[in-house]
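Case 352 in the screening queue. Each case pairs one protein sequence with one candidate compound; here the compound is S-adenosylmethionine. For every case the pipeline is the same: read the inputs, emit a complex structure as tokens, and attach any notable structural observations.

Predict complex for case 352.
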Amino acid sequence: MNNREIIDRLSAERSLPKELWVRLLTEYSDDDRAYAAEKARNISTGIFGRKIYIRGIVEFSNICRNDCLYCGIRRSNTALSRYRLTEDEILECCAEGYSFGFRTFVLQSGEDAFFTSDRLADIVRKIKLSYPDCAVTLSVGELEYGEYKLLRDAGADRYLLRHETADREHYGKLHPAEMSWEHRMKCLRDLKSLGYQTGAGIMVGSPYQTAECIAKDMLFFEEFQPHMIGIGPFIPHKDTPFRDKTAGSYKLTLFLLSLCRIMLPEVLLPATTALGTIDPRGREEGVLAGANVIMPNLSPLAVRKKYMLYDNKICTGDESAQCRHCLEERMRSIGYELVIGRGDWQERRALK
Ligand code: SAM
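Case 352 output:
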């Protein structure tokens, strides 16, 4: 079986055995990537048209109790100046975003103890009251079931929590001993059982990642059936233990986007900021590889540079309006348009 035949099999069966994943991920050529990208693009335009959903991200705190070895806002990074937006500032970001046409707000932060689930639930309620036509996505890390439930009851619609890796041992090399792979996976199951549209995901090329690890990630996606998948390259940050590690491969990230689209046709798949950071055309190429979401920044300009997860992060010097406009132009240049709307996950037959 050659690689094209493996990709055809994935397309027909929405599934591959592990050994074929490993083979595909170790031996792919530019030609295989182009073949997968074309298939993925056709699936994506067949379901969503040439329309790209936008989500406005509000990075409301860079304070974090965790010490993930790859992350620029890890607790041990003393070189970073920390900030926390007030509730009013968060609501102002949403107001501004709404006026630019955003109908999904993604509230993302480090694991900041100040923002208890009660405080967050208040904020979610206020956003939903002011903008009943909008979706709220949370991305605030690992919580307990009761806390996720409280936030869901307050009106949160979606939750992004990358599992980071489906390989337990690999997880242990990316995180300090006090963090647990089992707990992160349990969080994802809790979120899904509570009715959140749930997003999992990985960094491509994170240190010590092997083709076998990514094969396990793909098997996990197949089994878990996330509504959203966040895949971006790992990019080193100068003030972390991984400062000298190599960034993830641009081509492999694009290939994986295509393979995710082929395996889970209706999944919401962003062309991430990290992809746009390692290549100036990353977000356009991400869309052409099968992505259908982009997530511009709505954080106040004054704090953008402080939410530096990795070096040289793009869009940290532009006002939200500029970001929105720039992305609109970028999408138009490849024949796509940004749409105003919540852009919920839907079953394929409902979309047809
Ligand atoms: N605290 C929340 C959590 O743990 O999910 C949300 C914030 S966390 C910074 C968001 C994501 O950023 C992580 O899931 C990770 O995949 C990504 N990230 C962190 N450091 C990165 C790096 N150096 N390169 C690429 N992505 C990175």
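Case 352 observations:
- Residues 70-71, 73, 108, 110-111, 139-141, 161-162, 164, 203, 232, 234-235, 237, 274, 309-310 surround S-adenosylmethionine (CB under 6 Å).
- The chain has a mean pLDDT of 97.
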